[in-house]
Amino acid sequence: MGIESQHKTSSSEHSQGQEAGETTDGKTKILSGEERKALSERILQNPNSLSDAPTDMIIEAVKRDGSDLKYASESVKNDRDIVSEAVEKNGGFLSYASEELRDDEELALIAAHSKNFISFQDLSERLRGDKELALVAVKQKGDLIEYASEELRDDKDVVLEAVKQNYQSLLYASDRLKNDKDIALVAIIMGNGYDTFRWVISNKLKNDKDVVLEAVKQIGSNLEYASEELRDDKDVVLVAIANDVVSFIYASERLRGDKELALVAVKQKGDLIEYASEELRDDEELALIAVRRYGGNLRYVSDRLKHDKKVIIEAMEHSNGMAIMSVPDELKDEIKEEMSKRT
Question: Do 226 and 236 form a contact (C-beta atoms < 8 A)?
Fold first, then answer.
């Protein structure tokens, strides 16, 4: 056998059971059947192993699981057919495509109508300015508006849809729309929570009576973050304490001196007399209501009423005698004697 013939035979024997493929760096890699099988198993366990795989195996992996596109070569990430197949399964996989394909409107629409359009944030700047795509994105996940163009963050339709899905999305709106009353009301209703009014609503709208009324309807203690002017608005405060009586403490000093409001508060929670005006803490009717709720509230009434035997006796009877701690020293013996006669 000649040298040339021997070489051909040797090469043929060497290639049996082996297959060639292009690696992620574009080079040809020869893998035996056993090696391909072992690599396939590694890829299933750890997609990072794709970096060692030939192109045909990468394509196969991506078709099986679109998330493997993340580990593919740039040529695979720029293959429209492969990317399209991955994106049809999950729109989020478009994030792993090439820069060129992330600017492909048709692929973006496929992603948008899939089950997950988180990839909106990774689209080209041009497509993040597309209103149709943005509306689909924010309806799925409101805070994706953060990645929309400046123009769309100033678009009332887009911002409103975002806020309906996630009230906190209002934080990413333009300054103009952060001060839009309609949107703010939707945010408060959708948020239905303490942090909505405090952190999301603009200071300007915290001075809008309609907005504040809605906020205190949701949670009375939102009154704390209303403007000074509206904390001095009796209508607003009445709604707030009807929702949460403790919000009485956030009313203006003037309204904490309003007997009607104080009666509403103290009838529900006697110790709120502590936050009433000095004049009302010297009001016998209010003091009696407070100590009947709990005698220990005697400590919050005026000094004059702490010496009033009628108020003291009521306090003692509604505290198992513990109110004695708030009785002036010069009256303690007399009160103890009086209480002993009653037992």
Answer: yes
